[in-house]
Amino acid sequence: MKVLLSEEQLQQGIARMAAEINQRFGRQPLTIICVMTGSIILVADLIRQLEMPVKLGSIHTSSYRGETKRGDLQLDASMLPDLTDAQVLIVDDIFDTGHTLDAVSRHIQSLGAADVGTAVLLYKHGRQEIEFDVDFIGFDIPDEFVVGYGLDYQGIYRNLPYVGVMESDDLSPDA
Ligand code: 5GP
Ligand code: MG
């Protein structure tokens, strides 16, 4: 595995994001929506550095990448709390084409939230397919498939404490 962002770099980036979020929202209550599953580690580290009253909810997405056409993004919103008039911050692991965050954001808005912001750990350079402004970004990264710190390859590697790029001698999930 080639390390792209070390544990130390990740913690520095997350501390900076948390400071920006604290500054922007002050003491107003904030509902964090964790986009499962990739953002659980980011959310766990981030919310412990937030100073306002925080509520937590989650939404599950799957995109069937490579198997079916774009637009088949599935949202499971059954775990969301009541968002009426809430100040919401959607947190995802990575912004790639942008379709996931766009769909989640539209859905959350449709539920009556007062304000919907977005935060991602990683922003993949040069991949965006739609116009979408992410409010808080941890790191800009090159167009490579990354794993670790929540991000998986076929279900594994989420537990790596760093973000890395797989190399040819990395274990296949079946090994
Ligand atoms: P988008 O809808 O922006 O194209 O894709 C966002 C989702 O695709 C992310 O939430 C993540 O689940 C997945 N994804 C995109 N790029 C990568 C990557 O480099 N590594 C991993 N593990 N997942 C990715
Ligand atoms: Mg995802």
Q: Tally the beta strands.
A: 9
Q: Please describe the biggest sheet, giving its number of strands, its sense, and whether it closes into a barrel.
A: 6 strands, mixed
Going by helix content, strand content and strand pairing, the class is alpha/beta
Helicity, as a percent range:
10-25%
Radius of gyration: 16 Å
What proportion strand? Answer: 25-35%
Distance separating the two termini: 16 Å
- As for the CATH topology, it is Rossmann fold
Give your account of this protein's structure.
The protein is an alpha/beta fold and 175 residues long. It has one domain: Rossmann fold (3-Layer(aba) Sandwich). The protein has three helices and nine strands. The chain has a six-stranded mixed β-sheet with strand order 4-3-2-5-6-7, with helices on both faces. Helix 1 packs across helix 2. The mean pLDDT is 93. Bound molecules: guanosine-5'-monophosphate and magnesium ion. Magnesium ion binds next to strand 5.
Explain the layout of strands and helices:
Blueprint: E1 2-5, H1 7-25, E2 30-36, H2 40-47, E3 54-62, E4 74-76, E5 87-95, H3 99-110, E6 115-124, E7 136-141, E8 146-147, E9 163-165
Parallel strand pairs: 2-3, 2-5, 5-6, 6-7
Antiparallel strand pairs: 1-9, 3-4, 8-9
Features:
globular, Rossmann fold, six-stranded mixed beta sheet, 30% strand, 3 helices, 175 residues, single chain, three-stranded antiparallel beta sheet, alpha/beta, binds guanosine-5'-monophosphate, binds magnesium ion
Short description:
It contains three helices and nine strands, in the order E-H-E-H-E-E-E-H-E-E-E-E.
